[in-house]
Amino acid sequence: MAVVCQTGQGAGMLWFTFFVWWTIVFVVLIGSSLLGQIRGQSSQMHNRRTSFIWIPYGLVLWILVDVIPHRVWIPITFSRIWLAALGDSIVLIGMAWVLWARWTLGRNFTQAPVITETHRLITTGPYRVTRHPIYTGILAMLFGSMLFYGFGATVVILLATWGVFVVKLRAEERLLIERYVDKYIAYQQNTPQLIPIVRHLTINEKNR
């Protein structure tokens, strides 16, 4: 995969902060998933089919990183220190958004599409801006990473991740509609799915 090629103190600091932002998100989300399993949260509704989506996703990442030669990405790689700095800043903003959403979600957080006995519909904080703010934040971090790396293979990684999230959120929203019915449909109609302001991606299961 193509990387920013600049050297020096400034580039080194960018690499350090870039690593820190992603590490914080991984630790928080994985830690939250493990904590939920330790607590033994019982589920009333569960969609297991989306668990298999990570297999082709992992295969795509492996092909991009280890199989496709680096030279393939050179024509669409534009490594610039200012682009890396901009990308690092967007990654930071995305990280903050993910953490805010995770904190707002509380014990509702689960790794797979699950409705637990204690689940409640959250529509406050970042959930007033998009219905899936954790996904929004991660996509923002990946967009920032794409700028940080100067495009290249990260363009495909961003698109592949977007596809995985679309599959997962469709499963999540079906469960939420089953649980909250008209209340969630009204929430869909008033709140964008992933991108703030953009509402045309709304999934209205009532019309299907």
Automatic annotation (TrEMBL):
GO molecular function: transferase activity
Primary location: membrane
GO cellular component: endomembrane system
The name this protein goes by in its record: Isoprenylcysteine carboxylmethyltransferase family protein
InterPro entries associated with the record: Phopholipid_MeTrfase
Xref: Pfam families: PEMT (PF04191)
Organism from which the protein derives: Sulfoacidibacillus ferrooxidans
Record's keyword terms, sorted: Membrane, Transmembrane, Transmembrane helix
Subcellular location: Endomembrane system
